[in-house]
């Protein structure tokens, strides 16, 4: 069995995406969706409903008033933002199953920082801010999958100091970009973001504005120190007057304290 076959077998052993969240995300992707239908679906998972309400009241959303019910939350959040919340909750729950690991925490924080930067940049690329946030959240899901399936091996790859994509291809037979496309496909998540997962490191105009946008956001996330590799303080470029950088850092630290993610 070659390395790529072993990698695919490992990816197939990933825990399934939470079924209620997956169904809700598919409903939200439809052009016309009934918020009442979404509310009724979420009611079938009391824990998920509670977490949606909790996250809707968090620093990630910055609601102007307390959100106390799912029917109240849905019109305020809108379909794109709710999709992002469901993804954030489901990914963080999925990652917690692996136990505490610094590399997974750093990779997840990179995704969050990229998502927050992408949302801020969206207008410059003529994209919907919540769609941009979701694309940023998706872009490195392949790296998280490889970390979950082969944590010791991936930690060794990180520690080696070499080019991560080249090392991934050597050790797994595919890199995290290809793994991300595989996960999006096999978890039946929105296929809109497959190109983002595949091409965010080397975007081409033909891949569309969304991939270019996520690439820019990914660079910013790394510059702020939210990288899968631990960075020295002198490598982190944060201007004390950069409001975006301060906002991203504050939000991630707030989510880490509140949710352990």
Describe this structure in words.
The protein is 66% helix and 0% strand. The chain has helices spanning 3-12, 19-28, 35-42, 46-56, 70-96, 102-121, 129-138, 141-149, 151-160, 164-172, 176-186, 194-199, 209-223, 243-259. It starts with a helix and ends with a helix. The mean pLDDT is 81.
Brief summary:
With 261 residues, the protein is mainly α. It has helices at residues 3-12, 19-28, 35-42, 46-56, 70-96, 102-121, 129-138, 141-149, 151-160, 164-172, 176-186, 194-199, 209-223, 243-259. The longest helix has 27 residues, at 70-96.
Structural class estimated from helices and strands: mainly alpha
Helix content: 55-70%
Mean pLDDT: 81
Shape: globular
Distance between the termini: 36 Å
At the fold tier of CATH, the topology name is Hypothetical protein af1432
Number of strands: 0
Q: If classified by CATH, what would the architecture be? A: Orthogonal Bundle
Beta-strand residue fraction: under 5%
Q: Rg, please? A: 18 Å
Residue stretches low in confidence (pLDDT < 50, at least 5 long) are none
Compute the number of structural domains. Answer: 1
What order do the SSEs take from the amino end to the carboxyl end, as H and E? HHHHHHHHHHHHHH
> What is the level 1 CATH name?
Mainly Alpha
Sheet having the most strands: none
Number of helical segments with 4 or more residues: 14
| CATH level-four homologous superfamily name | Hypothetical protein af1432
């Amino acid at each position: 069995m070659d390395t790529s076959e072993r990698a695919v077998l490992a990816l197939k052993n990933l825990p399934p995406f939470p079924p209620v969240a997956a169904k809700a995300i598919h409903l939200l992707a439809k052009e016309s969706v009934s918020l009442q239908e979404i509310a009724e679906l979420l009611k079938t998972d009391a824990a998920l409903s509670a977490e949606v309400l909790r996250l809707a009241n968090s620093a990630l959303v910055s609601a102007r008033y307390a959100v106390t019910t799912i029917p109240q939350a849905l019109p305020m959040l809108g379909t794109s933002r709710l999709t992002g919340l469901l993804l954030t909750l489901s990914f963080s729950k999925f990652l917690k199953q692996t136990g505490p690991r610094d590399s997974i925490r750093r990779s997840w924080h990179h995704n969050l920082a990229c998502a927050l930067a992408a949302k801020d940049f969206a207008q410059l690329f003529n994209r919907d801010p919540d769609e941009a946030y979701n694309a940023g959240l998706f872009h490195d899901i392949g790296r998280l999958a490889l970390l979950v399936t082969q944590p010791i091996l991936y930690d060794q790859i990180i520690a080696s100091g070499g080019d991560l994509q080249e090392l991934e291809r050597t050790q797994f037979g595919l890199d995290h970009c290809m793994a991300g496309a595989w996960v999006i496909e096999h978890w039946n998540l929105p296929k809109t973001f497959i190109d983002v997962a595949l091409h965010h490191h080397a975007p081409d105009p033909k891949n569309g504005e969304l991939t270019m946008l996520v690439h820019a956001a990914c660079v910013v996330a790394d510059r702020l120190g939210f990288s899968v590799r631990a960075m020295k303080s002198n490598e982190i470029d944060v201007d004390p007057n950069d409001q975006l950088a301060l906002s991203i850092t504050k939000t991630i630290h707030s989510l880490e304290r509140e949710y352990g993610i």
